Write a sequence for this structure.
């Protein structure tokens, strides 16, 4: 499981940067942008499905966070608050534009671990991105946000509920439905060998 | 047992107890639909877990900084526009009565000229009266208070003026950015 930001330096400095930003010094907020850009961008990309919209949504998320920093409740996790802004912005965008597609040429940069053969690894990772996006796009925007928060950021049900303005039971129910929908979509796209053989056997031959 | 329970157990992330596991295994042996659901969900789960996070193009923070500068510049322009609009509206409101005051309404150009001149002299006389009144009040105040009080009032007025200038500067200035 992956956390939003595991860097202990970021966790130690976060309060200082927030204090700086709240005093009106944008320098402090630039450190925040630097530390959380990947998490916010990944959520936006998983939600919107293409790199241009993901970049724009991630930029807008930080802009909204910067202008509403005074409303941030310091007793809550900053990452939860920030990803909540990103998720709501992306949900609004999807509802406005109804754009739920993925293009093979429109894939983001991905992290390739050092020491692996680059071209094969890159192809494999790109195929993986396509498969993941293809199953995510079948979900409703809210379900998609819940899945990304649960499987990419290891958010608890309570954190997801806080971020998406839902109850804990609604989050559980949405995640259950999302898992079933994704599994069914997977069955549809990648049927097991038994299913494929049987279908071939059962098809009429003239 | 209800088929729905098995589906919930199959898709649950929480650990099942021994009895639930045993019941689920028995059910999956006999139910092809649940067997397929388990296979596909396990494959999807693996995809989600191994999928690397997408990362933005290099220079994201610098792009955000530029965007912030643009947004702040636009906001400053908007504020300047509204300040100009309000000042212009105030000037127009002030100018309308003056215009009406000097609007010549005579039946001939010569008569209109004399009428406008008469109104102008009336306004000058009124302003002269106001200035005389103010000077009398100031002289009376000067007689009542010692000269040091006058200096103190002057300093206080300068202080108020400086506070006003500082407030206007803060309203029109933007947050510091590291451009």
């Amino acid at each position: 499981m992956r956390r939003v930001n595991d860097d202990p330096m970021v966790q130690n400095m976060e309060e200082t940067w927030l204090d700086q930003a709240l005093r009106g010094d944008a320098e402090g907020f630039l450190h925040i942008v630097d530390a959380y850009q990947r998490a916010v961008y990944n959520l936006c990309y998983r939600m919107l499905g293409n790199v241009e919209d993901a970049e724009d949504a991630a930029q807008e998320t930080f802009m909204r966070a910067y202008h509403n920093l005074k409303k941030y409740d310091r007793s809550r996790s900053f990452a939860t608050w920030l990803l909540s802004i990103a998720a709501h912005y992306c949900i609004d965008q999807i509802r406005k534009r109804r754009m739920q597609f993925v293009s093979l040429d429109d894939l983001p940069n991905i992290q390739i671990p050092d020491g692996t053969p680059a071209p094969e690894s890159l192809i494999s990772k790109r195929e993986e991105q396509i498969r993941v996006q293809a199953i995510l796009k079948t979900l409703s925007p809210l379900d998609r946000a819940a899945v990304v928060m649960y499987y990419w950021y290891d958010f608890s049900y309570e954190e997801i509920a806080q971020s998406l303005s839902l109850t804990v039971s609604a989050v559980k129910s949405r995640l259950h439905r999302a898992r079933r929908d994704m599994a069914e979509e997977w069955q549809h796209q990648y049927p097991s060998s038994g299913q494929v053989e049987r279908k071939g056997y059962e098809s009429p031959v003239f | 047992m209800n088929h729905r329970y098995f589906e919930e157990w199959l898709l649950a992330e929480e650990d099942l107890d021994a009895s639930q596991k045993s019941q689920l295994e028995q059910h999956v042996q006999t139910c092809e639909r649940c067997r397929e659901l388990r296979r596909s969900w396990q494959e999807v789960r693996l995809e989600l877990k191994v999928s690397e996070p997408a990362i933005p193009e290099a220079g994201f923070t610098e792009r955000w900084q530029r965007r912030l500068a643009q947004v702040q510049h636009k906001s400053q322009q908007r504020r300047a526009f509204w300040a100009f609009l309000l000042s212009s509206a105030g000037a127009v409101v002030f100018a309308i009565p003056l215009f009406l005051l000097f609007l010549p309404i005579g039946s001939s150009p010569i008569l209109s000229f004399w009428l406008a001149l008469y109104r102008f002299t009336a306004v000058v006389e009124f302003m002269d009266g106001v200035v005389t009144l103010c000077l009398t009040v100031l002289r009376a105040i000067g007689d009542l208070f010692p000269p040091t009080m006058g200096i103190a009032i002057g300093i206080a007025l300068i202080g108020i003026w400086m506070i006003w200038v500082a407030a206007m500067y803060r309203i029109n200035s933007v947050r510091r950015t590291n451009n």
User: Anything to note?
Assistant: Confidence is low (pLDDT under 50) at residues 197-206 of chain A. Chain A touches chain B through 49 residues (CB under 8 Å). Strands of chain A lie at 109-110.
